[in-house]
Amino acid sequence: MPDRLFSDSKLAAIYDSFAPPDRRDDFRFYLPMVMAANSVLDVGCGTGSLLHMAREAGHSGRLCGLDPAPGMLEQARARTDIEWILGDVASATWEDEFDLVVMTGHAFQVLVDDDEIRAALVAIRSALAVAGAGAGADASGGGKFVFETRNPPVREWERWTPDNVVEVTGPTGAVVRMEREVELPVEGDVVRFSHTFTRTGWQRPEESRSVLRFLDADSLSSFLSDAGLAIEDQFGDWDRSPVTAENPEIITVARRG
After folding, report:
1. Inter-axis angle of helices 25-36 and 49-56, nearest 10
2. Is the pLDDT of residue 1 over 50?
3. Helix %, strand %, coil % of the chain (to 5)
4. Contact in structure between 207 and 235 (CB atoms under 8 Å)
5. 4-151+215-256: CATH superfamily
6. pLDDT in tens, 165-188
């Protein structure tokens, strides 16, 4: 799930230029799981690239993408053989419908408040299939919820500085520059920062502010347990190495209990 600054159509149209789907390590990790599940919900699906890839690879079951950003879903709806829903996961009302729920692109981190995290996890657990109900739910437990967050000890936000400019060529061939700047000092586990996009031909830069929460592994475990989700595996990077203070990710595979 991209940051909500990509809600409008102009910025949503360039999102995949900054994160090309065929070069994303997270998609290489998630895609086999998606292909193995009969029914999949992608929470914060963004431009829908992961589900597009699954359908193109031959997935014939139910694929559903949920995102709160109209501009992103405008891009996602290029494929009409996938369900696309505009909305927020906490307000969803699915019951036992999906073998697999995923949140990619560090989407989980946009859930900042404790109550917001709890509500989202309760809704996700409700959406997951019960034990024995589908390909992603077997006798050992219910459907799976798989997601990742950035590992706090790595302090990735310290590299989000104006001198680390990212430049890409957008779909029209124009070069787009992105700068990030963190609001200092960072206190606790919440990081506030701004994005500034510039491109030749735009009347002015596009700017937006974002807020992310960097939960540690113990805090994640507590939230998941309270919601009735049991951790099955955790990895520190996309090569399935363990969670350590040096590895950049906390990739969690949880099951509905």
Report:
1. 50
2. no
3. 30, 30, 40
4. no
5. Vaccinia Virus protein VP39 (3.40.50.150)
6. 999 888 888 899 999 999 999 999
Cis peptide leading into 185, omega within 30 of 0? yes
| Angstrom distance (rounded) from CA 231 to CA 221 | 7
Tell me how far apart the alpha carbons of residues 14 and 17 are, in angstroms, rounded to a whole number. Answer: 5
Retrieve residue 48's tokens.
């829908």
Q: Is the pLDDT of residue 13 over 90?
A: no
Residues in Cβ contact with 80 at an 8 Å cutoff, skipping those fewer than 6 apart: none
Q: Burial level of 246, CB count in 10 A (0-12/13-18/19+)?
A: exposed
Predicted pLDDT of residue 152? 98
Q: Are strands 166-169 and 175-182 parallel, antiparallel or unpaired?
A: antiparallel
**Which amino acid is it at 216?**
D
**How many angstroms separate the CA atoms of 257 and 122, rounded?**
12
pTM: 0.92
Task: Compute the Cα dihedral for 177, 183, 188, 121 and give only its sign.
Answer: negative
21 conformational bin, left if phi > 0, alpha if psi -120 to 50, beta if neither: alpha
